[in-house]
Amino acid sequence: MDEKMVTVANGRFEVQTLEAGSGEVVVFLHGAGGLTWDPFLEKLSESYHVIAPHLPGTGDSTGGEFFLDHHDAFYFYLDFLDALDLDQVHLIGHSMGGWMATEVAALQPMRFKTLTLLAPIGLWNDDYPVLDIWAMLPNEIVEAVFHDTNHPAAKMMLEVPTDPMELAKMQVEQTKNGQIAAKFMWPIPDKGLKHRIHRVSTPTLVLWGASDKLAPVQYAEDFGRLIAGSTVEIIADAGHIPQLEQTDATLEKVRAHLS
Predict the structure, then answer these.
(1) Which residues are CB-contacts of 145 (< 8 A; sequence separation ≥ 6)?
(2) Following DSSP, what letter does each residue of 155-199 receive, concatenated?
């Protein structure tokens, strides 16, 4: 995996970008927890050229102060694609990134070969609301996000570094991620996507973990119904991050969609 800084919007943003692989381009938009080059992205890069930007305000990306609301983030991603001269790419988004990927595909539907949504937020139903992560303790978030709270990734989320410098670094990153996500998702992650989602015409896969308690699996059918021609797949024994809990099963569905 390589790392580089990409200048976007005439220098307004400097974007820390992770990439690996060759072939057709896949752009990955991360969720509210920030970007990690995980086994899902690593394995995907064996067949594709995977590009994953840190949203400004997270990681080492700068310019988050220019986001006044969610619309600025949507146009940032289009500017990012312009900066790399990317067109006809595969777009994948997880959770908050899945919402933003949907919005970007609604803005420029002809720009993408495929759209893959991993447990996206962005819709709302009072009968099965998305949980408020800002009102939850870390252990409660892990219980909501994972099917198996003994999964190594779940345990890692609860680990507290003993080294003071590492602890401070972790706290800074968590604070940065939370502040940026709150700009878009607070008080509820419903900013009118339902009024724009009909514009998505890109071949779309909606993929959800059956045990997702953060964004209940009923939203998979909602996204599937609102995006014409989309395919909905449910991953067993997975929660809100199916690409971590069930990497191989998720990859199988994603690769089939991309091809």
Answers:
(1) 154, 157, 212, 213, 214, 239, 240, 241
(2) HHHH---SSHHHHHHHHHHHHHHHHHHHHHHSS-S-SSGGGTGGG
The Cβ of residue 199 has, within 10 Å, a number of other Cβ atoms equal to: 15
- Would you place residue 89 in the very low, low, confident or very high pLDDT band (cuts 50, 70, 90)? very high
How much is the pLDDT for 164? 81
> What distances in angstroms separate CA 93 from CA 29, 122, 238, 255, one per listed residue?
5, 12, 17, 15
pLDDT band, very low/low/confident/very high, at 178 (cuts 50, 70, 90): confident
Per-residue buried b or exposed e for 28-61, using 16+ beta carbons within 10 Å of the residue's own CB:
bbbbbbbbebbebbebbbebbbbbbbbbbbbbeb
Which pTM value belongs to this model? 0.96
**Could you give the C-alpha distances from 210 to 143, 147, 171, in angstroms and in order?**
14, 8, 31
Q: Would you say residue 167 has pLDDT above 80?
A: no
CATH superfamily, region 2-258: Alpha/Beta hydrolase fold, catalytic domain (3.40.50.1820)
Domain extent listing, the chain: 2-258
Mean of the per-residue pLDDT values for the chain? 95
Cβ-in-10-Å burial (0-12, 13-18, 19+) of 85 comes to: exposed
